[in-house]
Amino acid sequence: MSAVERLLANYTRQVRLPWSANMSGKQRVWFAVYPPAEERRIRAKQPQFEATTLEAQHGWLNVDLTNLLPQWIAAHEYRESIFAEPEHFSVSGELEHLAVERVRQACISEDANAGTVVAITGLATLFDFMRVSSLVERVEDSVRGRLLVFFPGEYTGNVYRFMDARDGFNYMAVPITAIESFVQP
Predict the structure, then answer these.
(1) Is residue 159's pLDDT more than 90?
(2) Which of 21, 67, 132, 143 is most buried, by the most CB atoms less than 10 A from its CB?
(3) Closest Cα to residue 7, out of 180, 154, 185?
(4) Whole-angstrom Cα distance, residue 184 to residue 171?
(5) What is the C-alpha radius of gyration for the chain, rounded to an integer number of angstroms?
(6) Residues 133/76, Cβ–Cβ less than 8 Å
(7) pTM, whole model, 2 decimals?
């Protein structure tokens, strides 16, 4: 069984467990952790993650942040200057704010309730432009069901490292990894 298939199997077990309604926002966050090299395979398995969630009698909403950066640059007032001298380009907190608002809107939408998984994909495209820990901390209070963060990186000793490059951050989310015996049936 491949790492991606094990991750899907562990997610399947996790999503089928009973959900407590008396949890803080931090405890409603799940991180599906996988090696960054597996990003395309994870994307290809998205329909299975969704199907598994629906089979477990939960709703599914996907928030894809893949195009957030190009859309932001395309709409930027100084986009021509950015393209002319990209070495001088730096992203302000505006991009992170847009990501937070996109995720928050999904979490509070009419389609999201206490039984819905809101999945965040496309974080790899924002590497080096924003911190995942900051995004999650800013939206956790909006989560009614569960927030599933597809996290290209690693998880060891309660520390998450985004894209295996950043300093790790300790977060109280439930990690779902590709380790074979991670979740016991």
Answers:
(1) no
(2) 143
(3) 180
(4) 22
(5) 17
(6) no
(7) 0.89
